[in-house]
Specification:
The structure holds two protein chains of two kinds. Chain A contains five helices and five strands. Chain A is an alpha+beta fold. By secondary structure, chain B is α+β, with helices and mostly antiparallel strands. Chain B has helices spanning 14-23, 36-41, 77-81, 84-89, 92-97, 103-108, 111-117, 123-131, 148-151, 234-240, 247-260, 271-296; strands spanning 7-9, 27-30, 49-52, 62-64, 68-72, 134-139, 142-147, 152-154, 157-158, 165-172, 181-188, 198-206, 216-224, 231-232. The chains are: A alpha+beta, B alpha+beta.
């Protein structure tokens, strides 16, 4: 039986593994690394419960051999609370699922959250249609999807708000011209002109 | 573990790939793994060796020249879906790509994998059957080019030999000038994960899109999941060519397509229904392609 030595960086932590080539990425994540947040539903690419983010893209980790992921950066649901957007608590997407009742049995949720993250990473303000398209490879047999869509919309709004607060605090994130902070009296009397863009 | 054991190879050049194909017994090529992985999980395929093509950079990419579009076999659905250049010159391909499964599958799945699998329900096989073009195949003996119309032989059976790799597909642009061509890929599908019940690929070139009723110079129609291969329907194309589009011609297209297809019945759609809906979808693809051909003049 042949084996391969591979390196996976999962949620920022680098792991060296020796695996059989036939080991699926989902099995490496769950059984070798003991990160059982990502679920296995169908094992054949249908359900999306095993969705993780690999090098910035959502993938189905049951349709990837672990050897194919050698050298890559993987994000799973376990990493969401440590993400900077989580600010020490739940990530806004997780909070969205809590606030909007985006889960019932919870089996699809880790995959939905990672699919949601891939959607928002690429497009912070998706339309409802774009969200539905983005989770179209993920099956949920409980919710009817409506509240999952709302959960991701909640996260989109929350991340927007956080962005605005951060901008009002520091004002330096996006001040490369034409920026309006939107907060009343934010910079009264300082002479700082948000909209001018020529103060640098 | 669900798949049977195999040895894994990850060459970095096409030459190394074809040499492995010569030297290894019972080897399969691994592209995006979005279909082979399912087949192997079910142990319907138990190859002794997998040759992963993801390390061969020269197999990915889209090249557009005045004469042709060439797409490398390892180009993903996502890349094709999002190619602005393809949307401009051969919009059927991005439209076919964006309707494949969900985004996670499109991030990994490749055009070469789809052509190699040759499922007659597949989107690219059908788009290529409509558009025409050439497959570039390579073995240790050298390159071989095969016209699309000769490649698909029977259900998931093609002219690709055991020692060959698909390097690229090229589609000549001459028949599809952007300012007077329209294309449409429409499919009837229950959910992202399912195969389409039926799909239709239509392309129309008119003589002068500025006229109120331009004459159709060229029409192309191909159907997915409607026969044992992606099925081009030349008799239906002939009805349209040389005339302006008419309601009567569209109805005749639908009738000819319904007559021409030989679909397998499936759980949610029996043969009769699929034949009927194939005609309707052929009509829709042509109607939309025609609208787009006329709009092309304004772009």
């Amino acid at each position: 039986m042949s084996t391969k030595d591979i390196t996976l960086t999962v949620n920022g932590e680098t792991h060296s593994l020796t695996v059989e080539p036939r080991m699926l990425l989902i099995h490496a994540i769950r059984e070798e690394l003991d990160l059982t947040g990502s679920h296995i539903g169908c094992d054949t690419g249908n359900c999306g419960a095993c969705t993780v983010v690999k090098d910035g893209e959502a993938i189905k980790s049951c349709l990837t051999f672990a050897v194919q992921a050698d050298g890559s950066e993987i994000e799973t649901v376990e990493g969401m609370e440590d993400h900077p957007d989580a600010d020490g608590g739940l990530h806004p997407i997780q909070e969205g699922f809590e606030q909007e009742h985006g889960l019932q049995c919870g089996y699809c949720t880790p995959g939905m959250i990672m699919a949601g993250k891939a959607i928002l990473d690429e497009n912070p303000n998706p339309t409802e249609e774009e969200i539905r398209e983005g989770i179209s490879g993920n099956l949920c047999r409980c919710t009817g999807y409506q509240n999952i869509v709302k959960s991701i919309q909640y996260a989109s709004d929350k991340l927007d708000e956080n962005g605005e607060v951060a901008a009002a605090d520091g004002g330096r994130a996006e001040t490369d011209g034409g920026f309006t902070c939107g907060v009343e009296n934010c910079c009264g009397g300082t002479g700082f002109d948000h909209t001018g863009g020529d103060n640098e | 573990m669900k798949p049977a054991a195999f040895d894994y190879h990850r060459p970095e050049t096409v030459q190394a790939v074809v040499e492995l194909l010569e030297s290894l017994d019972d080897a399969e090529l691994l592209a995006g793994n979005q279909s082979l992985g399912i087949v192997m999980a079910n142990r319907l395929a138990t190859p002794d060796h997998l040759i992963d093509l993801s390390g061969v950079d020269s197999l990915s990419g889209i090249t557009v020249t005045d004469a042709a579009v060439e797409i490398g076999a390892m180009t993903t659905h996502r890349t094709i879906e999002r190619s602005d250049r393809l949307a401009e010159v051969l919009p059927m391909l991005p439209e076919a790509a964006e309707q494949i499964a969900g985004p996670a599958v499109r991030n990994k799945g490749t055009i070469g994998g789809s052509i190699g699998e040759a499922d007659p329900a597949g989107n690219y096989p059908t788009a290529l059957a409509a558009l025409g073009g050439t497959l570039h195949l390579r073995s240790a003996e050298g390159e071989r080019t095969v016209p699309v119309e000769d490649y698909f032989i029977a259900y998931m059976f093609t002219d690709l030999r055991e020692n060959e790799i698909i390097e690229a597909v090229s589609i000549p642009r001459e028949a599809y000038p952007v300012d007077r061509t329209g294309m449409a890929f429409v499919e009837l599908k229950r959910a992202a994960q399912t195969w389409p019940t039926v799909s239709a690929a239509g392309a129309i070139r008119v003589d002068d899109p500025g006229e109120s009723e331009p004459t159709i110079e060229t029409a192309r129609i191909a159907m997915a999941n409607a026969a044992d291969i992606p099925l081009r329907v030349p008799d239906a194309e002939a009805v349209l060519e040389g005339e302006p589009l008419s309601a009567a011609a569209l109805d005749e297209v639908a009738d000819i397509v319904t007559e021409s297809v030989t679909p397998e019945g499936e759980m949610h759609a029996d043969r009769e229904y699929k034949a009927e809906v194939a005609g309707e979808y052929a009509k829709r693809s042509i109607r939309t392609a025609h609208e787009r051909a006329i709009d092309a003049a304004d772009d």
